[in-house]
């Protein structure tokens, strides 16, 4: 993600979070579709993750709408809430990756499906990419209203 969005940076942060949480939500369905004989505990875990990730994505959407209503002038309080959401989303992605790793090592159905392993590795890399974006944003605290 580029850092030259100026006063629109909080909205850009929210757009990134919304996009990646939607991706992760869809990835739970992709895995289930690609491995129809996936063990039931993993199916149940993926369904639960689908709901959790969708809730986080919806939270990003609510903040996008809020920032729009604020005329893109974000208060320090709202900015902190956005950064807290990014931190939560990053930690959620880290936990989601733990499930992906568990799928790759413990699921016989997954291990016996080379295509599914390839897709699983791709999904993991995408979640890792989001984590990298989130870490960069959180460490830089770019364009904080307090820094203007």
List the helices and strands and how they pair.
Blueprint: H1 9-34, H2 40-69, H3 76-106, H4 108-111, H5 114-140
Structure description:
This protein has five helices and no strands. The protein is mostly helical and 148 residues long. It has a single domain, classed as Butyryl-CoA Dehydrogenase, subunit A, domain 3, CATH 1.20.140. Helix 1 runs parallel beside helix 3. The longest helix is centred in the middle third of the chain and has 31 residues. The chain is elongated.
Quickly describe the structure.
With 148 residues, the protein is an all-alpha fold. It has 5 helices and no strands.
Radius of gyration: 17 Å
Number of domain modules: 1
SSE pattern, N- to C-terminal: HHHHH
Question: Which regions are unreliable across 5 or more consecutive residues at pLDDT < 50?
Answer: 143-148
Determine the CATH topology: Butyryl-CoA Dehydrogenase, subunit A, domain 3
What distinguishing features does this structure have?
disordered C terminus, elongated, 148 residues, Butyryl-CoA Dehydrogenase, subunit A, domain 3, 0% strand, mainly alpha, 5 helices
